Amino acid sequence: MTDWVSLFSGGKDSSWALYRALEEGLDVSRLLTVHPAGDSYMYHTPATELAALAAESVGIDLVEVSPDDFGAGDVDDAGAQGDAELEPMEAALREIAAGRDVDLAGVTAGAVESEFQTSRIQAMCDRLGIDLFAPLWQRDPVELAEAMFDAGFEIRIVQVAAYGLDESWLGRRYDADALDDLLALREEYGVHPLGEGGEFETYVVDGPHMDRRIDLTYDAVWEGDRGHVEIRDARLE
């Protein structure tokens, strides 16, 4: 049996890629979460500390890469930083591939439109001689969102940073009503309905691939024109 690794943050896009891989019958034996130290060109940043709970609910072993593994802090160029940020992920995958009884076939990724991210992940896969499963890539964002809702994903917005998104969006459920509001904001401000431009970030608290829902207690932190939720407690129901 060949092994797949799901690049996983707990956000909706990586969770959807994982879900679709499982639906396709891919043998996902590990989730791989990268915890950036701060802002990142390559990775989803908020609430990645909850990935362990999500992995427990999904029932797949989690491999975590810590901020200490990054060497991109002094890099000014975005492309160079993206390359540097990828290095600890690639090292982790090489370590997984070297394990006993592991035949690494590929990785899943939740990229939708970011050529910056996808080109680097594809190049990494080429170097490792493995495949890339990217079921969201270049798909219609509204259709993707509706597919997530139809499948039973419960998604919460955990960070916002765009015109039109105020404090009321923090902790809000990302559902059909929220999508309607986002489409109106796209007309007015250009907000991407999946938050692909960094307008908002999400966390999946329940879905068909999860055995137990994640219950969150949090405070909303607003910083003038952007904000995030600060998790006070998280547990599996």
Structure commentary:
- The chain folds into two domains: 3-133, 3-Layer(aba) Sandwich (Rossmann fold); 141-236, putative n-type atp pyrophosphatase, domain 2 (Alpha-Beta Complex), CATH 3.90.1490.
- Helix 1 (12-23) links the parallel strand 1 (3-7) and strand 2.
- It is of the alpha/beta class and 237 residues long.
- The protein is 33% helix and 24% strand.
- The chain starts with a strand and ends with a strand.
- The radius of gyration is 17 Å and the shape is globular.
- It has helices at residues 12-23, 51-58, 78-97, 115-128, 141-151, 176-189; strands at 3-7, 28-34, 61-65, 104-108, 131-133, 154-160, 200-206, 214-222, 227-236.
Concise structural overview:
The chain has helices at residues 12-23, 51-58, 78-97, 115-128, 141-151, 176-189, and strands at 3-7, 28-34, 61-65, 104-108, 131-133, 154-160, 200-206, 214-222, 227-236. By secondary structure, the chain is an alpha/beta fold. The chain folds into two domains: 3-133, HUPs (Rossmann fold), CATH 3.40.50; 141-236, putative n-type atp pyrophosphatase, domain 2, CATH 3.90.1490.10.
